[in-house]
């Protein structure tokens, strides 16, 4: 059993055709057939049945089960390649959402510099949802992620660093601007300007909407927090943001949510469970877990 045979089998499962699989790999059809036969011999089980009358392929229960393992094996091999390439480059690929990065990284970077670690970082900015997927697939080594609940995944290890509140921001000329707090259900007729669905905010917003049985109108989505603040300042709409993203100098008014039950913005440091941290990666993990988030 070798990697190429596994790749042939996975593609055959996807295409359900020997001809298409052979064309994809630019090999002859007998090459694919022989590879499958070798796998069947090694596993002592029939994986594929060829229905000659209908020219169809039928994967046996053994074949379907084997494909699930093949998918995991090939993914692990790809992840290993990415990890080893990163180690050779002596760079730590750090996932950093813009909100968390903007709030913490300027002060955190001074500590990284003092330990000669900043130059070792290769930062990747994106929403927490996409960064989590990149971490699982081996495209990142470590990630600082935002979530609305503790990240529980058998493939990951993590450290809870901080919990922050979500708030509502409105124009200083908005009728709500004089209030200190507001119930989410009282905002059902307000137009919202929100971060797009790559960010955890969308999950928290939907959670509150379901909880209050309302469906506020979202008139605009963007991945740019400054655009959101500018539109809110001009009274085009209101927004729902983590308190981390709201600065004292912002030209908006920030209100607490008075809901008894409400989501939190959790900050977690996460890496793959089966990933052996290098000395540099371990130093960065140690620094971040000791940092006062």
UniProtKB/TrEMBL annotation:
Residues 1-60 form the HTH lysR-type domain. Transmembrane segments: none annotated. GO terms for cellular component: cytosol. PROSITE patterns: HTH_LYSR (PS50931). Keywords: DNA-binding, Transcription, Transcription regulation. One of its GO terms (molecular function) is DNA-binding transcription factor activity. It holds the Pfam family HTH_1. Belongs to the LysR transcriptional regulatory family. This is LysR family transcriptional regulator. It comes from Sporolactobacillus laevolacticus DSM 442. The lineage of its organism: Bacteria, Bacillati, Bacillota, Bacilli, Bacillales.
């Amino acid at each position: 059993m070798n990697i190429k045979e596994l790749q042939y089998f996975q593609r055959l499962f996807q295409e359900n055709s020997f001809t298409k699989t052979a064309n994809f790999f630019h090999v002859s059809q007998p090459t694919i057939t022989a590879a499958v036969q070798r796998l069947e011999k090694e596993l002592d089980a029939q994986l594929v049945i060829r229905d000659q009358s209908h020219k169809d392929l039928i994967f046996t229960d053994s074949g379907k089960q084997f494909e699930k393992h093949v998918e995991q094996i090939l993914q692990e091999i790809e992840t290993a390649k990415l990890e080893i390439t990163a180690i050779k480059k002596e760079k730590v690929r750090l996932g950093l959402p813009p909100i968390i990065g903007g709030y913490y990284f300027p002060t955190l970077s001074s500590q990284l510099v003092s330990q000669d670690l900043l130059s070792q970082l290769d930062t990747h900015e994106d929403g927490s949802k996409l960064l989590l997927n990149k971490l699982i697939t081996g495209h990142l080594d470590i990630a600082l992620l935002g979530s609305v609940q503790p990240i529980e995944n058998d493939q990951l290890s993590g450290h809870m660093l901080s919990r922050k509140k979500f708030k509502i921001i409105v124009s200083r000329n908005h009728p709500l601007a004089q209030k200190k707090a507001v119930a989410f259900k009282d905002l059902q007729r307000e137009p919202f300007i929100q971060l797009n669905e790559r960010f955890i905010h969308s999950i928290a917003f939907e959670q509150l909407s379901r909880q209050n049985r309302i469906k506020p109108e979202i008139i605009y989505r963007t991945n740019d927090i400054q655009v959101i603040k500018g539109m809110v300042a001009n009274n085009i709409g209101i927004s729902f943001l983590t308190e981390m993203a709201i600065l004292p100098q912002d030209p908006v008014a920030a209100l607490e949510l008075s809901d008894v039950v409400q989501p939190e913005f959790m900050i977690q440091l996460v890496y793959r469970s089966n990933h052996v941290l290098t000395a540099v990666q371990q130093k960065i993990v140690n620094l971040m877990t000791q940092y006062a988030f």
